[in-house]
Structure formats: C-alpha cells, structure tokens
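Appendix B, record 7
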Amino acid sequence: MNSTCKNYTHRSIQSLFTPRLTVLALLLSVIGLLAPGRAQAVGAWASLANTAPDSVGLMLLLSDGTVLCQQYENTNWYRLTPDTNGSYVNGTWTTLAPMHDSRLYFASQVLRDGRVLVTGGEYGTGTNGSSEVYQPTNNTWTLTPPIGVAVSDGNSEVLPNGNVMVQPVPDALGTRIFNIISNTWSVGPTLLVDQNEATWVKLPDDSILSIDDASTTSERFIPSLNQWIADATVPVNLYNYKSELGGGYLLPNGKVFFIGATNQTAIYTPTGTTNAGSWVIGPVIPNNFGANDAPSAMMVNGKILCAFGTNTDQVAPTYFYEYDYVSNIFTQVSSPTGGLTDNNPTFVELMLDLPDGTVLYTHSSSQIYVYTPDGSAVTNGKPVIKSVSKNADGSYHVTGTLFDGISEGAVYGDDWQMNSDYPIARLTNSAGAVQFCRTFNWSSSSVMTGTNILTTEMTLPAGITNGTYPLVISANGISSDAFALIVSSVNTTPANIITSLSGTNLTLSWPLDHTGWRLLAQTNNLATGISRNTNDWGTVSGSASTNLVTIPIIRTNKAGFFRLIYP
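Structure tokens (predicted):
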C-alpha cells in the first residue's frame, strides 16, 4: 500500500467504511459486447452463518483445510473450521494463540511443511523487520532470527526448494531468503528496479514475473541462475498515480493476466526459457474502475473474481466483476452485502480460494462471505491420485499429479499474499461426514506441473476408525476423483500369507489389520512384473497400501518365495 494512504489505516475500522465518494451504480451486467457462444453466467454470494470473533483481515488456508484468520491490524488469530459437510458457510470459529507483534499489510506464506511465515508490516509493531512462524500442530508462534532490515509491506514467493524470497520494502532493490530448514535469513538476489507496489506471479518454469514499480518495464527471477533478468516492456501503464497495482494470474491457457490500478489490463505470454516473453493490451476495466490495492481470486472455472473501485482514490464503494479469459471480457456481479456495491474501500478487502471450490471474502469486519462460482472446474487443473502407502510413523505417502494447482489461487499483491497452490486432502465416512487430513512436506512448490509425479505426506484426522474411505485431494479448490483409501490399525504381529492359484494368476492375501506391511518376493522370473535373481528380495509394487495382490505367473520350471515385513 502506498504511503499516501496511511491515514486510512490508523482510523477505527468503522471509519474506514465511511464513504468518501459516491459513485452512481450502473445497472449493467455486462459492459461491452458478449462473445458469441460463451454464456456469461456468474456465481452467487452467501453469508457465513457464524460471525468471526472480531474483524478479519488476512486469511490463509492451512494444510488441514481450516482457515487461519488475523484480526485486522492486531496480534490475534482465529481458526475457521468447516462443518461435517465440508461447508465453510456453516463453519465454526475458535481463538488461537496470538503472535508476538501486531501487523497490517505484510508478507505471508504457508510453508511446504505446513507452517506459516509472516514478515514485517506496513503498520503495527512488526515494522522493524520482525518475522515469526506459526506451527498449527501445537498452536505456537515463534520469532525467527532477525531478518537484518526493516520490512514494510512487500512481496514474497515460495521458491522451488521450499525456501521463501521476501522483498523487504523500503529496501527497494534487495531481497531476503528464509531457509525453512535452518529457520534463518540470508541476503537474496538483487532486483533490477524498485518493487515497492509490484505484484509477483509464479510461472510454470518456476520463474517469477513482475512489472516494475510505477513503470512499464518488467523483469523475472530465474531460480536456476539465482538472478533477476530484464523482460519485455508492457504496452500499457497499469500503475495509477499512487503507484498502486492489482493482482496478477497465471491463466489456465498458460498466459498471465495483470489487473491495473488504472482501468487497463495486460496479458503476458511466457517463453519457458530465459528469453523475454511478449505482452499485449488486455480488456479495459468497465466504468473507469481499477484495482487500487484490491483483492481478486482465480476460481475453479478459470474465471477471476475481481473487486474494483475508483482508480483515482482509495475510497468506498467496491464493485465486483468476473473476468472470463476465454471471452476476454468483464461481467458485473452482485455484492455480497446486496445490490451492486459493498460500501467499503477495496484496500481493506481480501479473498481466499477454499478446498470446496468457493471463494472466501472479508472486508475487515466480523461478517465473512463465500462466493460460489458457476459452471465446472477446468479439466487441466484437476489433480490425480496415483497411489497411497503407509509410512512407518502411521502417516501416509501420497503420489499423483497437479497437487500444486495451475495457479497460485487468490491475489492481493504486495500488501498480502494468500497463495493456496498446495494439496488439501479430505475423506468422507460412511455417514457422509467430511474429515480433513493434514498434508505436509509437499514435493513441489511449482504451478502447472502437468503430468509430473508429485508427492505429499498426510496424517489422518484424530479418531478415525478402520474402513475404506474415498480420499480426495484439491489444489486451489479443484478436486481430484476419489481414491479408495484403506484405513486400518496395523497389527505388528507376523501373519501368514494365504495363496490361491487360478490359471496363470497367483493371488496372495494377508489379514486386513496387516495393511501397511510390505510383500517381498524372491523369484527366478516367476512373474514378469517381479523379475529378480534368486539372491535378491524386492518389494512387490503397491503391496504396502493393500492386503491382497494378484501376480501373473509362468508355471513351468520356476520358483517363487514371498514374505511380509513391517514397516
């Protein structure tokens, strides 16, 4: 947020919402022409049934499916837990441990191990560069060693190795790196141009794209080089006179969409290499509106839900639009508070993608809202679960594709980050109740990884009973098909293997409560799937997640030996 707006944030929450400018709402659902063949249906709002304990600013999706919510410019945090149907509309609130320093507009990331990092603050006691980490498993905040520089608002991104790069405004060209293993800070690569109010976007090649502050030049960070390099010139100015900018998004088609604080937008086509990409002018934002420090969210249908206001000042009211990248137009939608406007300025608002495909919205009050988009999820963002096996400690190892999503989720820009490009796992029991698992140690921090095999570890919810559960993984709200997960208390007493032969198929089974044991084979080419020499024991693929395997065999002059081991 630009320093010229600081006087707003030091007023009471109520005074923030006093309108300073009246803008006549035009009752137009579409400004401009509709693209042929593309119906401009829109979503719908709903109010949360239970209000938050206090005004909510930043919202972050934890890896157990709950939402971590900060009281606006405060040290207090709350947790929103979905109900047994997985609904956040009927979710419940609990109060969590407070952090050490108060903060408003600061860098924030959910880490690969499930913890949360917050750094600095434009306002509050954290402006001296204070950083702390929240551990959800024991509800504690821990201060990190000093970052070594004052930190106001500023961008942040998770790097391919899981560490976090932060741009510590007012150090205009400097960056700092947080190491998630040592929990220490180091100096990062130098930027080419000031990034004070910029928005960073992660690309499929792991590079980070930015439009330089108050400029039309752009640059990218290349992780393999640990270097920022110049990119192409933007053909239109997206920064307004206050040097503010809206969000930036990796679209389902692989292009990048930047929203201006002016009434302009721009679209970038990446090369996937260190060569510069290309920019074109995007659609004009209707009614001379802009994203003058404003939230927006990529929805599961590929459209972007946008909050807009006047591009000449940071005042109420807010108008809402959907951007459709296929038709390349904006369509106006209703306000969560009724009518077409929310009587608040955009800079106190925030959005967050949820695992059920909806978008959570706050305007820094205790009443929170959910937006449900129309249509279905884009198919190229759908995660796929390939396998699940049990670890020695009782957690589960899950493999599959697109666990990290095809975008980073919702965006505000330099003042807040609320990325959700990581796997959220949920089970449904026989009574239809939804239970969320906790994921951690994700193998990837990238986006749009296609058919690359990714992994995550997962712990089951407390008190879950033995049985078979449909397991679903979502990223940015786009959900996989269900995978049959067998949950059983592992019996560590040795058990017998039961065999049966039918034609050329040998079936081996063992008690259900021994699921988690591995079947080892020693064979001289008994089966094409487990070809081994006679002195080598090897694990039969997939045996640790089941209690039955069937192996095709060659019955002539061959021998095979099998045994179970745990873990």
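Remarks on this record: The mean pLDDT is 90. The chain has two helices and 46 strands.
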